[in-house]
Write a structure and sequence with these properties.
Layout: H1 2-18, E1 24-30, H2 37-52, E2 57-62, H3 70-78, E3 84-88, H4 89-95, H5 111-131, E4 134-149, H6 156-159, E5 163-167, H7 171-179, E6 183-187, H8 189-197, E7 203-206, H9 208-213, E8 222-224, E9 229-238, H10 239-242, H11 250-281, E10 285-287, H12 291-308, H13 315-331
Parallel strand pairs: 1-2, 1-3, 5-6, 8-10
Antiparallel strand pairs: 3-9, 4-7, 4-8, 4-9
Helix pairs in contact: 2-11, 5-13, 7-12
Length: about 325
């Protein structure tokens, strides 16, 4: 009898392991506009995952913030209304605040340094995300942030009288700008255009491609040529959903997403150049930030760091990032 039970259990286990994956629908939220490069990349990932899974994994994508802001999407993932989202670095920081350290102004100087930091730090961040019930399938860089304003802006003193739009939902970010003496106003991505139109805000910071995609540059017609900080992002699923995918299939899905995202990086670089040409044609003015002005901005940024150290991330973590950057710079 014991042998029979053991044999039956073995057969049942084998049957379960060999059974095809039950249909899995993944609802994906995104603030990227419909038809934007990031939205198109997500559609490619959806098609590849459908192919790899033999049609058993379907993704329903909700672009343009129609399911809410990034904090809204995180809440919906936690209660099961969404199973995944494309997040910016800011969105990632709402789950794991420490990730914001990668986007500190003037910490990172170029794409090579950012790639090096991502390789060094994402295993640590992935563990922290897992503890919160989320799984990052892929991380990526998403361009560099510039300041856009309704009036010319070069020095910090030029920005201080203006009403500055900052991402909602991050008390430290808001405090950081205000500690530096700026009139910061928290807003969601979906509310930014209206706020620019009615004068509620007069400045924002974003990659040029984002400013073009959302048409914000039509009102904020001045852009500083100073790159403030890198923008990162990633595809995040709830861990519960990711674990519904067979273990042997997960690396294939992740590799497909990585391949598409790598192609997106090259594509967005080219699209950003086109976006800049289009914005310049339609009235955008680029203000050159002099070396003296850059030094002033760097000093301003250090004041903002103090808001985060000891609260969002430790002094030791910041020094670790700086040590990684020294490693990279010494190798070059």
């Amino acid at each position: 009898m014991k042998r029979f039970i053991t044999g039956a259990a073995a057969l049942l286990t084998a049957a379960l392991l060999s059974a095809p994956l039950a249909a899995l629908t993944i609802k994906v939220g995104s603030v990227a506009p419909d038809g934007s490069p990031w939205d198109n990349a997500m559609k490619k990932i959806a098609a590849e995952w459908r192919r790899i899974s033999g049609g058993t994994i379907e993704m329903k994508i909700y672009p343009g913030g129609i399911v809410g802001s990034e904090p809204d999407m995180i809440r919906k993932m936690r209660i099961g209304q969404l199973q995944a989202a494309i997040f910016t670095g800011m969105g990632m920081s709402y789950i794991v605040p420490e990730t914001f350290s990668l986007s500190l102004p003037f910490l990172v100087r170029g794409d090579g340094e950012l790639e090096y930091l991502l390789k060094k730090t994402t295993p640590h961040f992935n563990r922290l995300l897992e503890k919160k019930g989320f799984s990052a399938v892929v991380w990526t860089r998403a361009g560099w942030v510039n300041m856009f304003t309704t009036k010319p802006m070069v020095y910090p003193r030029d920005l201080k009288p203006m009403k500055l739009c900052v991402a909602e939902g991050d008390a430290e970010l808001l405090q950081s700008w205000r500690v530096m003496g700026y009139n910061a106003i928290p807003l969601s991505t979906s509310d930014t255009m209206t706020a620019l139109q009615n004068g509620m805000v007069e400045a924002f910071y974003a990659p040029p491609l984002v400013a073009a995609a959302f048409q914000w540059f039509g009102i904020a017609k001045y852009m500083s040529d100073m790159k403030l900080a890198p923008m990162i992002g990633g595809l995040v699923l709830t861990t519960k959903t990711w674990r519904q995918v067979p273990a042997d299939m997960r690396p294939k899905l992740a590799a497909a997403a990585r391949r598409i995202v790598d192609g997106l990086t090259v594509e967005t670089d080219a699209l950003e150049r086109k976006a800049m040409a289009t914005m310049l044609k339609h009235g955008l003015t680029v203000n050159h930030v002099t070396p003296d002005a850059v030094r002033q901005w760097e000093q301003e940024a250090l004041k903002g760091y103090n808001v985060y150290v000891g609260r969002t991330f430790s002094r030791e973590w910041l020094e670790k990032l700086r040590s990684y950057l020294r490693e990279y710079r010494e190798k070059k």
